[in-house]
C-alpha cells in the first residue's frame, strides 16, 4: 500500500529505485556503545514504492530505559518483551539485500551494529540512505530538518512522535516525497557504503585523562619539572614504559606520543638514538635527559597553572558579529619537510556588524537569494561566488530547491544541470548581473522564515547558548558537488593552547571517527557530505580549539573539486544557523574549513577556507599527531 498520495510516487529511474528497509529505533540514550535499543520498527518498500513488509517490537534491554519522558517506555512496559538478540534474526532478514533508510541514519545504523554484535551476529547492511542528508541536498524551505517538520512540509500525517512504528510510517512518506524532489532536481542519492562491522572495529578505547595544567615551556638546564610540561619517551627503558607514564601523569605531567616544537623534554637512554622522536627533538632543539634523571626530577615536580574552565553562558546570543581576521600567509612546502599551517587566533580587530534588517536594498541587493554559479575557470567561479556574498546573497555549490538564481560564466550554458534549470524556470544571468549592484527581481520561491547567516571567508560568529536545559551538540557539515574520481575526507583536531593535540586520539578521521570520550564525532551523510558533531559543553578545559579540515585523496586538488559549503546547526536536525562557501585556489590538497574556539564564556566559529599543497599526513604532524610513514 502507498502511504502518500499518487503525486508523490517514488521515481523508478536514474538510480532512485531500490529495495528499501526503513528503520526507526527508540533507545535508552544517545551513545550506541553504551545504550540499548528499546523498540524498533522496520518497513520494507519495493522499487515501485509499494510497501512489502512491516515489523515492530519492544525490546527488554535489561537496563534502565533512560529518558522515559521522551520515548514513554517505562521498565514495567518493557518487562517481558523479547531481547534484541531474540528478534535479531527476523530484523536481519528484512534488512538483507535492501538499502537501510533512517532519519539520521548513522545513529540508527550504529545502534543496530552494536546490538547485532552483542547478539554475535553480523549486521546485513551494505548501503544506507539518510533522509536528513537527502533533504539537506534538496534543501526545502523548512525551519529545520526534524521529522515532524518535514512531514508537515510534505503533507505526511504524524500521529505519535517518538513511536517507532509511527515514525517509520512517516519516514516512508518523507522518503517518497524526497525522492520525487531529488529526481526533479536530478540529484544523485547520497548512498553510503557500509562495510561489515566486527565488534573489535568499534569497541571504544577507554578515554585518556587530559592534563589539567597549561604547558609552562621547556625544561631548563638544572631546573625542575613543572606540572603541564609535555614529556615524550623514546627507546628502551629500565622501568616499564607504562610505569613511567603512570607516575608522570600522576605528577601532573602531560605525556605525549610524539615530539614537536612544544615538547618540554625528551626522555631517552640512547643519546645517539636515530628514532623519529630523537631526530625531531634535535631539529627543534628540545632538551634530552635520560631515564635516571627523569625519575629524580619526578620526585620534585613543581606546581603548574591550571587550565581556565570556560563558564557556560546561560543567556541566548541575540546579536551575531562578523569579525574580520588577518589572512594567514600560505606556507610553501619543501621536499624534505612539508610545511604545515600554524593555526592561531589573530589579534582581534574591530568587529564589522551584521547589517540591520532596515539596511538599504541597494547595499544588499541579493539578500535572501541563493545563487548557483556555473562555468568559468575555477578562479572566475570563485570570484563570482565571493561577489554573491558581497551583495548579500548565498552562494550554492549544487542545484537545490532553495536556489533562486543561476549566474552563467563562460561555458556555463553547457553544464549538465542546465536542462533541469530550464525545466524549473530558474532565472539565469550573465556576469554583468553580478557586476551591477542593483536589486534583484522578487522571487516566487518559498523562503524560510529566517535564512541562515551568510558568513564570508574569515568571518566569525558566536555560537548561541539556549536558556536553560542541556547545551546543544553542534553539527558542522561540509558538502560539495558530487563528482567521480576522487574522495574527500573531513577530519577534526582537538587542540590545546599550543595548537597541538594532547593525544593522537584527539585526531578524529575516517579510521578513528570518534574521540575517546565521544565529544567529537565524524558522521558520513553521503559521498559528498560529512559532518563533525561537537559536544562543546563536555570538552575538557585543555581543549581550546577544534579545527575542522578536509583532505583530498589521490592526484586531484580542490581546484578540481570547486567550492565546499559548510553549515553549522544545533543538533543533527536543527535549524541551520550559518553557512559559508569556501574556495581554495588551484593546487591545494588540504583545506582548513572551520575553527571552533573558546572566547571568554562563549564558543565561536570561524569560516577559514585556507588551502595547502601538502597532504593530510603533513597537516596531522603539524598538529602533533604521531603519523607512521
The gist of it:
With 629 residues, this protein is of the alpha/beta class. It has 16 helices and 28 strands.
Task: Label this structure with key terms.
629 residues, alpha/beta, Nucleotidyltransferase, domain 5, Rossmann fold, Lipoxygenase-1, 4 domains, six-stranded mixed beta sheet, 16 helices, 28 strands, globular, disordered N terminus
Write the layout of secondary structure elements.
Elements: E1 20-27, E2 37-45, E3 51-58, H1 68-71, H2 75-78, H3 84-95, E4 99-102, H4 105-118, E5 127-130, H5 131-138, H6 147-154, H7 164-185, E6 191-193, H8 199-202, E7 230-233, H9 241-250, E8 254-255, E9 265-267, H10 276-284, E10 288-289, H11 291-298, E11 321-322, E12 352-353, E13 370-374, H12 378-390, E14 394-396, E15 405-408, H13 418-424, E16 428-429, H14 431-435, E17 453-454, E18 460-462, E19 474-480, E20 487-495, E21 507-508, E22 520-526, E23 529-534, E24 545-553, H15 558-561, E25 564-570, E26 578-582, E27 590-599, E28 602-612, H16 616-622
Parallel strand pairs: 1-4, 4-5, 7-8, 7-9, 9-10, 13-14, 13-15, 15-16, 17-26
Antiparallel strand pairs: 1-2, 2-3, 5-6, 11-12, 18-28, 19-23, 19-25, 20-21, 20-24, 22-23, 24-27, 25-26, 27-28
Amino acid at each position: 500500500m502507498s502511504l502518500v498520495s499518487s503525486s508523490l510516487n517514488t521515481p523508478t529511474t536514474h538510480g532512485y529505485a531500490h529495495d528499501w528497509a526503513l528503520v526507526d529505533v527508540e533507545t535508552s540514550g544517545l551513545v550506541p556503545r553504551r545504550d540499548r535499543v528499546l523498540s524498533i520498527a522496520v518497513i520494507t518498500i519495493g522499487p515501485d514504492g509499494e510497501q512489502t513488509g512491516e515489523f515492530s517490537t519492544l525490546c527488554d534491554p535489561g537496563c534502565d530505559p533512560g529518558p522515559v519522558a521522551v520515548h514513554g517506555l517505562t521498565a514495567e512496559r518493557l518487562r517481558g518483551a523479547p531481547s534484541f538478540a531474540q528478534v535479531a534474526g527476523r530484523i536481519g532478514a528484512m534488512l538483507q539485500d535492501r538499502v537501510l533508510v533512517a532519519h539520521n541514519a548513522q545513529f540508527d545504523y550504529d545502534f543496530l551494529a552494536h546490538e547485532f554484535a552483542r547478539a554475535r551476529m553480523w549486521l546485513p547492511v551494505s548501503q544506507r540512505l539518510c533522509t536528513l542528508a537527502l533533504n539537506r541536498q534538496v534543501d526545502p524551505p523548512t525551519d529545520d530538518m526534524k521529522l515532524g517538520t518535514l512531514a508537515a512540509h510534505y503533507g505526511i500525517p504524524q500521529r505519535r512522535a517518538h513511536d517507532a512504528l509511527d515514525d517509520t510510517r512517516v519516514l516512508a512518506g518523507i522518503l517518497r516525497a524526497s525522492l520525487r524532489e531529488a529526481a526533479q532536481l536530478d540529484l544523485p542519492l547520497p548512498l553510503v557504503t557500509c562495510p561489515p562491522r566486527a565488534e573489535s572495529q568499534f569497541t571504544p578505547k577507554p578515554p585518556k585523562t587530559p592534563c589539567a595544567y597549561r604547558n609552562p615551556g621547556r625544561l631548563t638546564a638544572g631546573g625542575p619539572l613543572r606540572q603541564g610540561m609535555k614529556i615524550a619517551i623514546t627507546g628502551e627503558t629500565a622501568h616499564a614504559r607504562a610505569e613511567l607514564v603512570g607516575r608522570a601523569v600522576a605528577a601532573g605531567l602531560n605525556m605525549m606520543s610524539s615530539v614537536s616544537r612544544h615538547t618540554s623534554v625528551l626522555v631517552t637512554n640512547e643519546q645517539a638514538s636515530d628514532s623519529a622522536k630523537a631526530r625531531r627533538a634535535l631539529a627543534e632543539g628540545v632538551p634530552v635527559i635520560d631515564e635516571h634523571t627523569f625519575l629524580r626530577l619526578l620526585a620534585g615536580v613543581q606546581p603548574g597553572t591550571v587550565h581556565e574552565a570556560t563558564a557556560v553562558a546561560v543567556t541566548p546570543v541575540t546579536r551575531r558579529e562578523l569579525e574580520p581576521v588577518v589572512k594567514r600567509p600560505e606556507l610553501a612546502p619543501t621536499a624534505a619537510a612539508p610545511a604545515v599551517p600554524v593555526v592561531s587566533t589573530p589579534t582581534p580587530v574591530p568587529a564589522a556588524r551584521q547589517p540591520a534588517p532596515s539596511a538599504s536594498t541597494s547595499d544588499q541587493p541579493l539578500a535572501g537569494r541563493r545563487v548557483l554559479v556555473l562555468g568559468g575557470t575555477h578562479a572566475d567561479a570563485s570570484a563570482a561566488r565571493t561577489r554573491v556574498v558581497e551583495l548579500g546573497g548565498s552562494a550554492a555549490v549544487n542545484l537545490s530547491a532553495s536556489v533562486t538564481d543561476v549566474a552563467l560564466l563562460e561555458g556555463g550554458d553547457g553544464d549538465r544541470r542546465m536542462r533541469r534549470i530550464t525545466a524549473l524556470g530558474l532565472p539565469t544571468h550573465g556576469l554583468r548581473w553580478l557586476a551591477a549592484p542593483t536589486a534583484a527581481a522578487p522571487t516566487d520561491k518559498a523562503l524560510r522564515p529566517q535564512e541562515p547567516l551568510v558568513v564570508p571567508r574569515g568571518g566569525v560568529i558566536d555560537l548561541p547558548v539556549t536558556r536553560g536545559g542541556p547545551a546543544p551538540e553542534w553539527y558542522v557539515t561540509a558538502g560539495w558537488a558530487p563528482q567521480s574520481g576522487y574522495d574527500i575526507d573531513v577530519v577534526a583536531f582537538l587542540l590545546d593552547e599550543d595548537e597541538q593535540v594532547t593525544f593522537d586520539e584527539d585526531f578524529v578521521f575516517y579510521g578513528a571517527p570518534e574521540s575517546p570520550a565521544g565529544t567529537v564525532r565524524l558522521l558520513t551523510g553521503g559521498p559528498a557530505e560529512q559532518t563533525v558533531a561537537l559536544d562543546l559543553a563536555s570538552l575538557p578545559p585543555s581543549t581550546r580549539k577544534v579545527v575542522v579540515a578536509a583532505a583530498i585523496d589521490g592526484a586531484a586538488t580542490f581546484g578540481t573539486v570547486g567550492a565546499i559549503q559548510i553549515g553549522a546547526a544545533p543538533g543533527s536536525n536543527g535549524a541551520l544557523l550559518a553557512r559559508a562557501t569556501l574556495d581554495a585556489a588551484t593546487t591545494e590538497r588540504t583545506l582548513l574549513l572551520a575553527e571552533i574556539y573558546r572566547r571568554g564564556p562563549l564558543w565561536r566559529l570561524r569560516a577559514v577556507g585556507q588551502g595547502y599543497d601538502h597532504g593530510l599526513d603533513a597537516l596531522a604532524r603539524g598538529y602533533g599527531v604521531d603519523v607512521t610513514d
